[in-house]
Specification:
Helix content is 37%, strand content 15%. By secondary structure, the chain is α/β, with parallel strands linked by helices. An eleven-stranded mixed beta sheet has the order 1-3-2-6-8-7-14-15-11-9-10, with helices on both faces. A two-stranded antiparallel ribbon has the order 4-5. Helix 3 packs antiparallel against helix 4. It comes from Rhodococcus antarcticus.
Length: 471
Amino acid sequence: MTLPDDDLCLLPATRLAGMVRAREVSARELLAAHLARVDRLNPTVNALVTLDVQGATAAAAAADEALAHGAAVGPLHGLPVAHKDTHLTAGMRTTFGSPVHRDLVPTEDELVVARMGAAGAVRVGKTNVPEFAAGSHTTNTLFGPTRNPHDPSRSAGGSSGGAAAALATGMVALAEGSDMGGSLRNPAAFCGVVGLRPSPGRVPTFPTALGFSTLSVQGPLGRTVADVALGLSVLAGPDPRAPLSLPELGASFTRPVLEDLTGLRVAWAPDLGGRIPVDAAVRDALTGVPDLVLALGGELEQACPDLDEADEVFTVLRAWLFAASLGPVVDAHPALVKETIHGNVAAGRRLDGTDLARAEAAHTRLHVAVADFFTRYDVLLAPTTQVVPFDVDTEYPTVVDGTAQADYLGWMRSCTLISATGLPALSLPAGRTPEGLPVGLQVVGAHRADQQLLEVAHALEHGLGWEVSTR
């Protein structure tokens, strides 16, 4: 089977994996096609900041040799992938987007990197991030900004912006990232791909100094929901070193097959119950969501869980995490760390035990509130982002739908409020602005209901008929 490189590189990862196993295309041919797109598109988009052509070429050759000798192969065998530049990669620099770590070359792989490698993926390089993954616009002083594949004058989102842009442009077949306040969902929405924030513990995080925190998780990005399910099947599964890791094996997350929503109770919250302003361009792009749900057989109500305490939970726990993890970096290298990180660390250091106890009590009440909500509904739908991709030279939007935002987290509350709940959430491409910019629909599942979330998202994707644009 022969396809033009552009068509080949934009096929779903599930299809590419099957083609490699069936020897319809070799791993070396697949890598060459993706590297050709890197050469052509990365100078504009700036999604990949480290590239290892020699290592990837050797890995692709080894993948072909394994198939030729009838060896058992993993589910990602031969697929070109890239890793977030905050995730440790043995023998490949990991900068965290910071001059503090510009020359860091780890000796071990982070768990998500190791699992993708063990599943047969071919490591191409590292994807760009904001400094220390702080913020939802991917830019830093080492590498500059990642640009939106649909309009290079706009942001690709963040903090997994390099990963989302690389996927949307066909430079990699599959990617991974992390999400504290929207860092998988936000760039997926801005770039027109799918990003999954799994349940805390679904994808174990190791190494980490704060293994009991539920706020930041790691997860997959792909061009389709089925691709994300494939990624989750590799990344998920218990690890005894990660205290929150859930017991279900990754293989239990199967390719979603649901194609309608018959019998499912769907809650639609276009402004999260009046809690967030949403720009008109986002609202307009998602106006067809209620009709789509009904056309797919779902039961629809406009409803939202009680998220009134989610702001305090997220803000306090995030500041504490910043102080604990980045405080020593700020102390040692104050001139090399951006101002917003200084501010977050300072906010964390102003907290005391009473503040943390109050936030954790609110966290518990929030969990009970959303658990009660999901006894009445199977899934919650809301906008992924409150704005469309903004100017690449702007650090963050200060006004949303005419409402001034108090700080650089304000425009991200569509995601941060959901992060605080600990619920699994996915961003699905669901529309475009008149200028052709993607708009994401956030699909939120019940507590630990990751597989059902994938099924619902697949049905919505099927109804939307979205295709990643070729550039």
